[in-house]
Amino acid sequence: MAFRKSNVPGEDIRRAMEMPxxxxxxxxxxxxxxxxxxxxxxxxxxxxxxxxVKAELVSREPAGxxxxxxTFRSLRGDGRFPYFRAGQFITLSTRVxxxxxxxxxxxxxxxxxxxxxxxxxxIQRKGIFSSYLIDEAKTGDVLIMGEPSGDFCxxxxxxxxxxxxxxxxxxxxxxLSMMKAIREGSENFRLTLLYGVRTRKQMLFNPExxxxxxxxxxxxxxxxxxxxxxxxxxxxxxxxxxxGGDTSVxxxxxxxxxxFVRGELERIGFPQxxxxxxxxxxxxxxxxxxxxxxxxxxxxxxxxxxxxxxSETVVTALERAGxxxxxxxxxxxxxxxxxxxxxxxxxxxxxxxxxxxADRKFNYIHPCSTYPLSDLEIExxxxxx
Length: 385
Ligand code: FES
What we know:
six-stranded antiparallel sheet, globular, 3 domains, binds FE2/S2 (inorganic) cluster
């Protein structure tokens, strides 16, 4: 009902007093048809953000010397995985003996392949969950997959049209997705990949598969010399060949690589604001002798008490005790695990403390990047898969 302000004194009051009657008339004229059960925009939002998806493992094959390539099929009604931006990650969750574990993995397949119902990750043997998947997971197994997340993607407004992608080991995965997306047309930028591995046997992909005018690949072997490959490390000499002009640098690999490559980029005067880096999960912290604390966990009306070590994050303690923890990035950034501390003290590593000021003030933590310093009582969100 339009209501325009009048310049005549008292007119607005008179019209306002007539409103209830006008409203009654309009309600009376309105058909008594029930509202639609759903709207297209809600359906689209649900399809893009389903929260969790059941995913069946349909194939697994060795990759390199210590990794495995896993392909999943969506068990959603429409047979699709949610659409994503190349460079994003999903989480995989399952019970491993007495633990319930969730880990993030970068997606190796392309966004369009997700719409065809298939999604691929490459998992390197690193810990209990990856070893379980590599040694024990079988085709036909169903895992819980968390929806695509993360901002390690090309952004036209922020990033240059040329990306210098620097990858170490399994850090190649998001760039595989980007290269596939460039080829299929869902991304539109040029990419030069510098891939550092020790030997050719450890390579996790075949560069020949990515022949395209917009993609250039250089493999840098640190422990082997071979024709057609660079030898050594991804040093300032190599970086300056490709990092000139309008270029953004994307880094993905182990922390030691970040430290080295960032130093080399600084050495050639590359602008820091054009460097983006995928973050690794928060690990254990060095504490000397481990203390064991009591961790009391409130999940709605349920209360559980478990042991927590001073060297491990609160999320690790929950998972070890078999309590499904709501997590995505596992590095303190996304806030998905946001939880309230009822009592007790804790430590958050400053480099992984991305809480808002209000969270700090009112004792909220991200358990994936928080370590106990005493017995703790916390309220955590419900794992609703
Ligand atoms: S899982 Fe992202 S902040 Fe904890």
